[in-house]
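Ticket 4471: requesting a sanity check on a complex prediction with zinc ion. Repro inputs:
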Amino acid sequence: MNKSDLRTKFQDILERKNIDIPLVGTATTAGILDLMDISGTNRPEADRDPVKMAKLASSLHTVAKFEVIRYPFDVTVLGEALGCKIDPGTKARTPSIISHPFENKPEELQIPGNLLERGRIPVVLEASRLLRNEMGINVPLVAGLEGPADLASYLCGISSFLMWTVQKPELIKEIIDKCIDACIICANAYLRSGADAVVMADALSSPDMMGPDAFRQFIKPGLMRFTSNVDGYSILHICGETDSIIPDMLECGFNAISIEESVKDLEYVVELAHKNNTAVIGNISTSRTLYNKDENDVRKEAFGCLDAKVDILAPGCGLAPETPLRNLLAMVESRNEYYRLKY
Ligand SMILES: [Zn+2]
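Returned structure tokens:
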């Protein structure tokens, strides 16, 4: 596929027009060891140094041949910027949240005026700028941030957060509101710095974690406010078996949804999404297939996604660091082969 066309094609996909062949790429985290070795950029440095972050992200295109690339490689940047301590991880272990600064004083949560200068947000902004203006790769860039439920659980602790959805609904609404404010500020800055789209990943919004009713009551209104205030393309990723909230996810106003292989009927989800003018990104299993199976299994699953008419063939969720590069290359090859055979 012509390189200079990739960004136009990505925009067409998100606007649901002139779509012929799906792109291959990722809207979920994809910092794998093979790419760190080849690009010579290891984490945790690639999580903290903009040049290294941009280099590892660009290797998703130059080495793994992905046509849509995603950075950063973890989902704790906003939490860290709002005061959570993180364990920076190691080459094979992603950063994780280790403190919940507002667990005992949730009413004190405020979004600081200098949010964009805090933690690693400046690193992501500079990486965007480098990828867009200086690396010469000209591929669609997707900048990721954590969604409101994940962010709230980082700040207040997951058990307090889930308990308050039952016991203190007013407090939860206030916390989610503030988290959405932070997400809007961060997303717009990522877009201004050169990202083609932002992806909000919210694992805790999954029906596997929070009931669909709680999602509709607390999260959905915030997501709707997010998309109305974001000045560019936005994508929503929710993990797990999302069937029961797919119609709600589609009503939130994102240009695309990114979903896991656990959805029961992909074809139906794609049909519903397209009726709603929303693109679908997914959903080869990261844990079952990409992590520990071979190219033939990837091909089989990729063909299933393409039969269901996904718009961007992608991993269903964040890739395990040990995922072999050959399985990512097999995704692109599978798409090419599918269209050679079919048309
Ligand atoms: Zn996921």
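Notes from triage: The chain has a mean pLDDT of 96. Leaving this open until the requester confirms.
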